Amino acid sequence: MSEQELQRIQKLIANSGLCSRREAERQIEEGNVRVNGKIAQLGDKSTPDAAIFVNNKPIMRKEERPITLIMNKPKGVLCTNADPHAERTVFDLLPPELRRQRLFCAGRLDKDSEGLLIITNDGDLAHRLTHPSKEIVKRYRVVLHRDFNKADIPKLLAGTEYEGDFLKAEKVIPAPQVGEGYQRRLEVHLHHGKKREVRRLFEANRYFVKKLVRIQIGGIILKNIPRGGIKILGKKDIERLFG
Prior knowledge:
By secondary structure, this protein is α+β, with helices and mostly antiparallel strands. The chain has 7 helices and 17 strands. It folds into 3 domains: 3-58, Structural Genomics Hypothetical 15.5 Kd Protein In mrcA-pckA Intergenic Region, Chain A (Roll); 68-132 and 221-241, 2-Layer Sandwich (Alpha-Beta Plaits); 137-217, Pseudouridine synthase (2-Layer Sandwich), CATH 3.30.2350.
């Protein structure tokens, strides 16, 4: 990396169009800016392709074309691009032309979870998707380690304090009484997405989640995409996320 490639963080933020350089300096002084996962200090420099987040929102270079895609995330891959020591990530599954883009996950799935994942370079879109006030529904199919007691549904809907977070489901639907093990299968709806929220909510109620698949975000339902496959979203698809 040459010295000519390095620029002050506040300049990189201002060049992205997010805010003025003075406002960027204020954000840095208040500890609201992270560069490649580390909190930035005033005077720090970096390259234009660094992962820069302001108030947990990534900046986007002006020359970038907004891209949003969905992936059917397989089990065993991580939703991270900030850890150089990470194992296989969802970005390793992208075609080469997309790996070169500065993409990130808008709402994660943990390593052992599967299903619908949104990947984008549009910070505003990601913020709208993940902010609790938008109340965008996320649907999950869950398999538990033991039979589910329907008497526990009110507890899941009322919510509980667990590990410093208030966790709750918006809807819990036991599986139809068909097939072996149906007593352990559920569908769960959330409006938000705290870290490992579904798993932790069931742990708080003495269940262990053996399998977790996200099947819907907003108006987008996971279908006809193989594990590890993707689909680029058009304007109408993105509108359906909020429909």
